[in-house]
TrEMBL record:
Pfam families: MarR_2. Residues 32-164 form the HTH marR-type domain. This is MarR family transcriptional regulator. GO terms for biological process: response to stress. One of its GO terms (molecular function) is DNA-binding transcription factor activity. InterPro entries: HTH_MarR-typ, MarR/SlyA-like, Tscrpt_reg_MarR-type_CS, WH-like_DNA-bd_sf, WH_DNA-bd_sf. SMART domains: HTH_MARR. Keywords: DNA-binding, Transcription, Transcription regulation. It comes from the Bacteria.
Amino acid sequence: MKGNAQVSRQRTAKVAPEELLETPLGSTDEIDFEIIELLFFSYRDFVSDPDAILAKIGFGRAHHRVVHFVNRQPGMTVADLLDTLKITKQSLARVLKQLIDSGYIRQVAGPEDRRQRKLYPTPRGRELALALAEPQSRRIAAALASGPEDTRTSVLHFLQGMRNRK
């Protein structure tokens, strides 16, 4: 313990005092902080209702993603889900096991290749997907209704442009 305290004191002693910047960052031609912040706050609020629903059953955002995509593409393989979510098998394993054990998702061996694992929602999993999507859909509808008639097309174009392409 004594050694750790010395290391801590040495680090703070060597650090030069930094100038405190009191002016906020402003948008420039290269960086649009207003849109960055709006995306941050929009995402925070967009996931808040599903987060509250998931918290009541001991789940989180990773569970939401799995339930969403398995319901949108029933029969997708575990490999497809890993590719869609851009996560590792290790990251998915715990979440998928919890969803299977809780009766939201079923995992079935592929008909041609028994090693292939296909994922399907159960009726309970479908109910959860809808319960999570409904408040998000209401939020989207309200936001789109506040804009001009072609807002949905513009939003779709913008969001598609924001996605990383393979």
